[in-house]
Amino acid sequence: MTGSLLIYNERSGRSDPALLAEIEALFADAGRPIGRKLALGEADLPTAASARAERLDLVVTLSGDGSMSSVADRLGGWDGTLLVLPGGTMNLLSHALHGDLTAPEVVTAHLAGKGSVLQVPVLRAGDLTAYTGIIIGPTAAWGDVREDLRNLDVAALAANVPRALAATFKEPGVVLDEHAGEYPAIFVEPGRTGLRAYGVLASSAGDLFGHGWAWLSGDFRNGPSEPLGTARNMRFRTGSARLDLLVDGEKEEAPNLLDVYADKSRVHFHAVLDDVAWP
Question: What is the Cα–Cα distance from 133 to 99, expressed in whole angstroms?
Protein backbone atom coordinates (compact mmCIF):
# COMPACT_ATOMS: atom_id res chain seq x y z
CA MET A 1 0.00 0.00 0.00
CA THR A 2 1.32 3.40 -0.95
CA GLY A 3 -1.48 5.94 -0.99
CA SER A 4 -2.99 8.50 1.37
CA LEU A 5 -6.32 10.30 1.52
CA LEU A 6 -7.23 13.51 3.37
CA ILE A 7 -10.93 13.81 4.30
CA TYR A 8 -12.10 17.17 5.58
CA ASN A 9 -15.31 18.93 6.56
CA GLU A 10 -15.84 22.17 4.69
CA ARG A 11 -18.65 23.15 7.10
CA SER A 12 -16.24 23.29 10.00
CA GLY A 13 -14.60 26.61 10.77
CA ARG A 14 -11.35 24.75 11.41
CA SER A 15 -11.09 23.33 7.90
CA ASP A 16 -10.09 26.57 6.18
CA PRO A 17 -8.06 26.47 2.95
CA ALA A 18 -4.93 27.79 4.67
CA LEU A 19 -4.97 24.96 7.21
CA LEU A 20 -5.53 22.35 4.51
CA ALA A 21 -2.62 23.78 2.54
CA GLU A 22 -0.39 23.70 5.63
CA ILE A 23 -1.23 20.05 6.29
CA GLU A 24 -0.56 19.11 2.66
CA ALA A 25 2.75 21.00 2.73
CA LEU A 26 3.88 19.13 5.85
CA PHE A 27 3.31 15.78 4.15
CA ALA A 28 4.93 16.95 0.91
CA ASP A 29 8.01 18.32 2.70
CA ALA A 30 8.41 14.97 4.45
CA GLY A 31 8.43 13.18 1.10
CA ARG A 32 4.98 11.68 1.70
CA PRO A 33 2.56 13.85 -0.32
CA ILE A 34 -1.18 13.38 0.17
CA GLY A 35 -2.48 11.40 -2.77
CA ARG A 36 -6.06 12.67 -2.78
CA LYS A 37 -8.39 15.03 -0.90
CA LEU A 38 -12.09 14.47 -0.28
CA ALA A 39 -14.54 17.04 1.09
CA LEU A 40 -17.29 15.42 3.12
CA GLY A 41 -20.43 15.15 1.03
CA GLU A 42 -18.81 15.47 -2.40
CA ALA A 43 -18.47 11.70 -2.90
CA ASP A 44 -18.93 8.44 -1.00
CA LEU A 45 -16.61 7.81 1.90
CA PRO A 46 -14.10 5.00 1.34
CA THR A 47 -14.89 1.50 2.51
CA ALA A 48 -12.35 -1.10 3.59
CA ALA A 49 -12.64 -2.69 0.14
CA SER A 50 -12.25 0.57 -1.80
CA ALA A 51 -9.32 1.65 0.42
CA ARG A 52 -7.55 -1.60 -0.41
CA ALA A 53 -8.31 -1.18 -4.10
CA GLU A 54 -6.90 2.36 -3.99
CA ARG A 55 -3.83 1.03 -2.17
CA LEU A 56 -4.34 3.41 0.76
CA ASP A 57 -2.17 2.96 3.82
CA LEU A 58 -3.19 6.23 5.52
CA VAL A 59 -6.49 8.09 5.82
CA VAL A 60 -6.37 11.50 7.52
CA THR A 61 -9.56 13.12 8.84
CA LEU A 62 -9.88 16.83 9.60
CA SER A 63 -13.35 17.00 11.14
CA GLY A 64 -15.31 16.60 14.35
CA ASP A 65 -16.11 13.37 16.16
CA GLY A 66 -19.32 12.64 14.26
CA SER A 67 -17.73 12.78 10.81
CA MET A 68 -14.67 10.89 12.04
CA SER A 69 -16.98 8.18 13.37
CA SER A 70 -18.62 7.77 9.95
CA VAL A 71 -15.21 7.39 8.28
CA ALA A 72 -14.00 4.87 10.86
CA ASP A 73 -17.17 2.77 10.56
CA ARG A 74 -16.83 2.56 6.76
CA LEU A 75 -13.17 1.53 7.05
CA GLY A 76 -13.78 -1.29 9.55
CA GLY A 77 -11.55 -4.26 8.68
CA TRP A 78 -9.09 -2.18 6.61
CA ASP A 79 -5.44 -2.78 7.55
CA GLY A 80 -4.22 0.81 7.14
CA THR A 81 -4.03 3.63 9.71
CA LEU A 82 -6.50 6.40 10.47
CA LEU A 83 -4.97 9.71 11.61
CA VAL A 84 -7.56 11.88 13.38
CA LEU A 85 -6.95 15.65 13.37
CA PRO A 86 -9.00 18.13 15.41
CA GLY A 87 -11.28 19.89 12.96
CA GLY A 88 -14.78 20.15 14.41
CA THR A 89 -16.94 21.52 17.19
CA MET A 90 -16.01 18.63 19.46
CA ASN A 91 -12.77 16.71 19.05
CA LEU A 92 -12.88 14.29 21.96
CA LEU A 93 -11.16 11.38 20.21
CA SER A 94 -8.39 13.60 18.86
CA HIS A 95 -7.85 14.95 22.37
CA ALA A 96 -7.68 11.41 23.78
CA LEU A 97 -5.15 10.33 21.13
CA HIS A 98 -3.04 13.48 20.85
CA GLY A 99 -3.74 15.71 23.85
CA ASP A 100 -4.06 19.42 23.09
CA LEU A 101 -1.94 19.38 19.92
CA THR A 102 -3.22 21.36 16.94
CA ALA A 103 -3.77 19.64 13.59
CA PRO A 104 -0.35 20.69 12.18
CA GLU A 105 1.36 19.61 15.42
CA VAL A 106 -0.30 16.18 15.22
CA VAL A 107 0.82 15.79 11.60
CA THR A 108 4.39 16.82 12.48
CA ALA A 109 4.51 14.27 15.30
CA HIS A 110 3.04 11.54 13.09
CA LEU A 111 5.58 12.20 10.33
CA ALA A 112 8.38 12.07 12.91
CA GLY A 113 7.25 8.58 13.93
CA LYS A 114 6.11 9.57 17.41
CA GLY A 115 3.44 7.55 19.17
CA SER A 116 1.89 4.23 18.21
CA VAL A 117 -0.88 2.55 16.23
CA LEU A 118 -3.70 0.93 18.17
CA GLN A 119 -7.31 -0.14 18.25
CA VAL A 120 -9.32 2.21 20.46
CA PRO A 121 -12.07 1.29 22.93
CA VAL A 122 -15.55 1.79 21.49
CA LEU A 123 -19.08 1.08 22.57
CA ARG A 124 -21.64 -0.72 20.44
CA ALA A 125 -25.42 -0.62 20.59
CA GLY A 126 -27.14 -2.64 17.89
CA ASP A 127 -25.74 -1.37 14.60
CA LEU A 128 -24.41 1.84 16.22
CA THR A 129 -20.78 2.37 17.17
CA ALA A 130 -19.51 5.26 19.30
CA TYR A 131 -15.85 6.19 19.56
CA THR A 132 -16.33 8.94 22.17
CA GLY A 133 -19.71 8.19 23.72
CA ILE A 134 -23.49 8.27 23.56
CA ILE A 135 -25.91 10.64 25.26
CA ILE A 136 -29.10 8.66 25.90
CA GLY A 137 -32.36 10.40 26.75
CA PRO A 138 -34.47 13.48 25.96
CA THR A 139 -31.66 15.92 26.76
CA ALA A 140 -30.16 14.76 23.44
CA ALA A 141 -32.50 17.38 21.93
CA TRP A 142 -29.84 19.96 22.82
CA GLY A 143 -27.82 18.57 19.93
CA ASP A 144 -30.12 20.56 17.61
CA VAL A 145 -29.38 23.72 19.57
CA ARG A 146 -25.65 23.12 19.20
CA GLU A 147 -26.03 22.79 15.42
CA ASP A 148 -28.12 25.97 15.28
CA LEU A 149 -25.41 27.84 17.16
CA ARG A 150 -22.71 26.47 14.87
CA ASN A 151 -24.73 27.57 11.82
CA LEU A 152 -25.75 30.91 13.40
CA ASP A 153 -29.37 30.00 12.60
CA VAL A 154 -31.38 32.38 14.81
CA ALA A 155 -34.79 31.26 13.52
CA ALA A 156 -34.03 27.61 14.25
CA LEU A 157 -32.70 28.52 17.70
CA ALA A 158 -35.98 30.25 18.54
CA ALA A 159 -37.82 26.99 17.82
CA ASN A 160 -35.34 24.45 19.15
CA VAL A 161 -34.42 26.00 22.50
CA PRO A 162 -38.01 25.77 23.86
CA ARG A 163 -38.30 22.27 22.40
CA ALA A 164 -35.09 21.16 24.13
CA LEU A 165 -36.20 22.71 27.44
CA ALA A 166 -39.53 20.91 27.24
CA ALA A 167 -37.79 17.61 26.45
CA THR A 168 -35.39 18.02 29.36
CA PHE A 169 -38.02 18.73 32.00
CA LYS A 170 -41.22 17.06 30.72
CA GLU A 171 -40.40 13.94 28.72
CA PRO A 172 -39.79 10.59 30.45
CA GLY A 173 -36.21 10.23 31.61
CA VAL A 174 -33.81 7.34 31.14
CA VAL A 175 -32.86 4.61 33.62
CA LEU A 176 -29.77 2.40 33.78
CA ASP A 177 -30.70 -1.13 34.90
CA GLU A 178 -29.70 -1.99 38.47
CA HIS A 179 -29.43 1.70 39.39
CA ALA A 180 -32.02 3.75 41.24
CA GLY A 181 -33.10 7.04 39.76
CA GLU A 182 -34.21 8.50 36.46
CA TYR A 183 -32.20 11.09 34.53
CA PRO A 184 -33.00 13.46 31.67
CA ALA A 185 -30.03 11.81 29.99
CA ILE A 186 -27.22 9.39 30.72
CA PHE A 187 -23.82 9.74 29.09
CA VAL A 188 -21.92 6.50 28.51
CA GLU A 189 -18.36 6.40 27.18
CA PRO A 190 -15.84 3.65 26.33
CA GLY A 191 -12.80 3.20 28.55
CA ARG A 192 -9.91 0.91 29.38
CA THR A 193 -11.95 -1.30 31.71
CA GLY A 194 -15.34 -1.13 30.01
CA LEU A 195 -18.17 1.36 29.79
CA ARG A 196 -18.48 4.33 32.15
CA ALA A 197 -21.90 5.89 32.71
CA TYR A 198 -22.80 9.30 34.13
CA GLY A 199 -26.26 10.53 35.05
CA VAL A 200 -26.84 14.02 33.65
CA LEU A 201 -28.21 16.49 36.21
CA ALA A 202 -30.60 19.13 34.89
CA SER A 203 -32.89 20.07 37.77
CA SER A 204 -32.25 23.81 37.75
CA ALA A 205 -31.36 26.77 35.57
CA GLY A 206 -27.83 26.55 36.96
CA ASP A 207 -27.49 22.98 35.73
CA LEU A 208 -28.69 23.97 32.27
CA PHE A 209 -26.22 26.85 32.18
CA GLY A 210 -23.45 24.43 33.14
CA HIS A 211 -24.39 22.09 30.32
CA GLY A 212 -24.65 24.93 27.83
CA TRP A 213 -21.19 26.16 28.74
CA ALA A 214 -19.78 22.62 28.46
CA TRP A 215 -21.27 22.22 24.95
CA LEU A 216 -19.97 25.57 23.78
CA SER A 217 -16.50 24.97 25.23
CA GLY A 218 -16.22 21.73 23.27
CA ASP A 219 -16.70 18.95 25.84
CA PHE A 220 -20.26 18.16 26.95
CA ARG A 221 -18.87 15.75 29.57
CA ASN A 222 -17.99 18.76 31.74
CA GLY A 223 -21.66 19.54 32.49
CA PRO A 224 -23.24 18.65 35.89
CA SER A 225 -23.45 14.87 36.31
CA GLU A 226 -22.92 12.01 38.75
CA PRO A 227 -21.06 8.72 38.14
CA LEU A 228 -23.12 5.55 37.73
CA GLY A 229 -20.30 3.03 37.59
CA THR A 230 -18.35 0.90 35.12
CA ALA A 231 -19.34 -2.36 33.40
CA ARG A 232 -18.72 -4.33 30.22
CA ASN A 233 -22.44 -4.31 29.36
CA MET A 234 -25.26 -1.91 30.24
CA ARG A 235 -28.99 -1.74 29.54
CA PHE A 236 -30.96 1.51 29.32
CA ARG A 237 -34.74 2.04 29.30
CA THR A 238 -37.29 4.83 29.31
CA GLY A 239 -41.02 5.34 29.76
CA SER A 240 -41.61 6.26 26.11
CA ALA A 241 -41.52 4.16 22.96
CA ARG A 242 -38.03 5.20 21.88
CA LEU A 243 -34.72 6.51 23.17
CA ASP A 244 -33.24 9.69 21.75
CA LEU A 245 -29.48 9.49 21.24
CA LEU A 246 -26.49 11.59 20.38
CA VAL A 247 -23.85 9.17 19.05
CA ASP A 248 -20.47 10.92 18.89
CA GLY A 249 -22.52 14.12 18.75
CA GLU A 250 -24.85 13.00 15.93
CA LYS A 251 -28.60 12.46 16.42
CA GLU A 252 -29.95 8.91 16.33
CA GLU A 253 -32.93 7.02 17.73
CA ALA A 254 -33.24 3.55 19.23
CA PRO A 255 -36.12 1.39 20.48
CA ASN A 256 -36.76 1.31 24.21
CA LEU A 257 -34.45 -1.12 26.03
CA LEU A 258 -31.01 -0.38 24.60
CA ASP A 259 -28.18 -2.83 25.25
CA VAL A 260 -24.70 -1.31 25.05
CA TYR A 261 -21.43 -3.24 25.27
CA ALA A 262 -17.71 -2.49 25.26
CA ASP A 263 -15.58 -3.47 22.28
CA LYS A 264 -12.47 -2.50 20.29
CA SER A 265 -12.46 -0.48 17.06
CA ARG A 266 -12.26 -2.39 13.79
CA VAL A 267 -9.81 0.13 12.38
CA HIS A 268 -6.40 1.18 13.71
CA PHE A 269 -5.67 4.74 14.81
CA HIS A 270 -2.39 6.59 15.19
CA ALA A 271 -1.95 8.04 18.69
CA VAL A 272 0.76 10.63 19.32
CA LEU A 273 0.48 10.25 23.11
CA ASP A 274 2.50 7.41 24.61
CA ASP A 275 -0.13 7.02 27.35
CA VAL A 276 -3.46 7.49 25.61
CA ALA A 277 -5.98 9.31 27.82
CA TRP A 278 -8.77 6.76 28.16
CA PRO A 279 -10.96 7.03 31.28
Answer: 18
Residues 121, 276: contact at Cβ < 8 Å?
Answer: no
The domain defined by 130-264 folds into Tumour Suppressor Smad4 (2.60.200)
Domain coordinates in residue numbering, the chain = 3-114, 130-264
CATH classification code of 3-114 = 3.40.50.10330
Rounded Cα distance between 40 and 61, Å, is 10
Q: What's the pLDDT tens digit per position in 111-155?
A: 999 999 999 999 999 999 999 988 888 765 566 656 655 555 556
Q: CA–CA distance from 62 to each of 33, 66, 91, 165, 243 (Å)?
A: 16, 11, 10, 32, 30
Cα separation, 19 vs 23, in Å, equals 6
Q: How many CB atoms lie within 10 A of CB 165?
A: 15
